[in-house]
Amino acid sequence: MIEEQGAMIDEVQQKPKRRKQKNRARQHSASEQTIYIGPNLRGLAQYTVFRDAMPVSVARMMENQPAIQQLVVPIGQIGAGTKRMNRTGTIEHKAYNQLRKDVK
Q: Is 0.70 surpassed by the pTM of this model?
């Protein structure tokens, strides 16, 4: 009976470790993805998700309008990026307004 309890304790202690490893795997795959949170532009829609690398067309747009780069954030940080974009005086806020002006 004592051996059974010891085995159950060992089993319970191992389960959280497995869960943590699964969560780390999810975080890793999410960190490879980025999302554009800026305004809709010709050829680039708001909330476009990029996996691994940017398309050539978007890279060219970034060369012409560097403000786009400020509005591409890791997908796991979309909430924080959006808050910064809405907060007056931040780099993201200035970039968003600059791109909006260029669209009009």
A: no
